[in-house]
Amino acid sequence: MEENISLQELHTFGLAVYAAQYTLVETEEQLQELLPLPAAHLILGGGSNLLFTNDFEGLVVHNKIRGIELVEEADKTVLIRVGGGEIWHLLVTWCIEQGYAGLENLSLIPGSVGAAPIQNIGAYGVELKDVFERLEAINLSTGKVEILDFDDCAFGYRDSIFKRKAKGKYFITRVFLRLSKEATFNVSYGAIQQVLEQSQTPLSIRSISNAVIQIRTEKLPDPKKIGNSGSFFKNPVVENSKVRLLQKKYPSMPVYPVDDHRSKLAAGWLIDQLGWKGYRKGDAGVHPQQALVLVNYGKAKGSEIWKLAQEIQISVQEEFGILLEPEVNVLP
Q1: Residue 332, pLDDT score
Q2: Catalytic residue among 158, 174, 178, 216
Q3: Is 86 a catalytic residue?
Q4: Is residue 190 part of a domain?
Q5: Which of the four pLDDT bands, split at 50, 70 and 90, describes residue 199?
Q6: What is the pTM for the complete model shown?
Q7: Residue 129: what are its φ and ψ, rounded to 5°?
Q8: Does 101 fall in a domain?
Q9: What is the CATH number of the domain that holds 12?
Q10: Quick one: 118 and 154 in the same domain?
Q11: What CATH number does residue 82 fall under?
Q12: Which single residue of 124, 155, 237, 293 could bond 189 by disulfide (Cβ 3.0 to 4.6 Å)?
C-alpha cells in the first residue's frame, strides 16, 4: 500500500491528480486480502475511460491480473480466458497471431480487458458482446468468486449491468471470449473498405486490424502525446420521429438505424455543427480533427475539461433538443 501517489501516468487524460492510497493486485488472492475495501475506493484498469475532477481521496486498486490461455477448442471456434489486467490491444494482437477472428475491428482501443465488459467496448461495427461468453469476478461484499454469463451482464450500447445495478460491486478478474477459426469479415463500417482498397492487401483479420489501426491513428490523438479519453460522449439513440424533424433542418445529418423506431446519431457531427471542433481554453480543448474527443494539452485540470463538456452538452441540447451522455466516467 502506497500513499499520496500520482495518477498522472496511470490514466490517459494525463491529469496531475493524486490518490490518497494506491495498491496493485496481480492475483485473486491479493485482492481478497484487501477486503473489505474502504467505502472510497476505485478499481483502476487502463485508465482510458476516466476523468478525475479532483484528487482521489480514497484507495485506488489497480487490476494487474494477467494471462491469456486457450481453454477450449472446437471445429470452428475457440474459447480463451484472459486476465482482467491484460492490455486490450495486446490481446487483439495475440489473437490475430493465433489466427483467431472476432476482435480485429476492436484494434487499438485503449484500456484493459477487465474494463471491456463494463463499457461493452465497440468500434467499426463490432462490440465486445459479439464475442463475450462469460466472466469471473470477485464480489467485493462477500469476497466470493462469481461467474456472470452473457445474460447476467445485460449489455447495451456502451453499457452493462456494471454501470448500473452492479456498479462498484465486482472486481473483474477473468474474461472468457468465444472467437472464430473461420473469419467472417466486417468491413462495411467507416472507412475500412476504402483503406483496404487503397492498400491493395488481401482481405484477412490482419489487414482489417491494420486498416482500423491506420484509421484510428489518423483520426484520434495519441494519449501519450495529447491527453484524452477517446470519444467523450456516446452517440445518442433517438426516436425516428425526432430524427425526421431534425432532417428537415439538417438534411445531411448522418443517421444510423437501430430498429424500426429508433436511430443513432453521430455525436461528433452534432458537436461539429456548433463550431466546437478545435476550440481551446487554456489547456482544455476539443480536438481539431475529431469533435467527439476532449483533450488535455498539458496542464488542464479535470474540472476545466468537465466544464467544457457541460458547455457542449448545453449547446447541443439547445440546438438539437438532445442531451449528450458522457461515455467517460467522471469522478467528483
Answers
A1: 86
A2: 158
A3: no
A4: no
A5: confident
A6: 0.89
A7: -60, -20
A8: yes
A9: 3.30.43.10
A10: yes
A11: 3.30.465.10
A12: 124
Catalytic-labelled residue, pool 48, 207, 209, 231: 231
> Cell digits for 68?
491469456
pLDDT of residue 299: 96
Q: What is the rounded distance in angstroms from the CA atom of residue 203 to the CA atom of residue 269? A: 30
Parent domain of 244: 227-331
Q: What is the pLDDT of residues 57-116, one digit of tens each?
A: 999 999 999 999 999 999 999 999 999 999 999 999 999 999 999 999 999 999 999 999
Active site residue 199: no
Instruction: Tell me, yes or no, whether 98 lies in a domain.
Output: yes
Per annotation, catalytic residue among 86, 127, 136, 327: 327
Distance CA(231)–CA(159), nearest Å, equals 14
Q: Return the C-alpha torsion angle 191, 195, 196, 198, nearest 10.
A: 140
Number of structural domains in the chain: 3
d(CA 276, CA 176): 40
Any residues with CB less than 8 A from the CB of 185 and at least 6 apart, and which? 203, 205, 208
Q: Any catalytic annotation for residue 206?
A: no
Same domain for 49 and 79, yes or no, is no
| pLDDT value of position 316 | 98
- Overall size of the chain counted in residues: 332
Instruction: Give 179-194 as a 3 state SS string.
Output: EECCCCCCCCCCCHHH
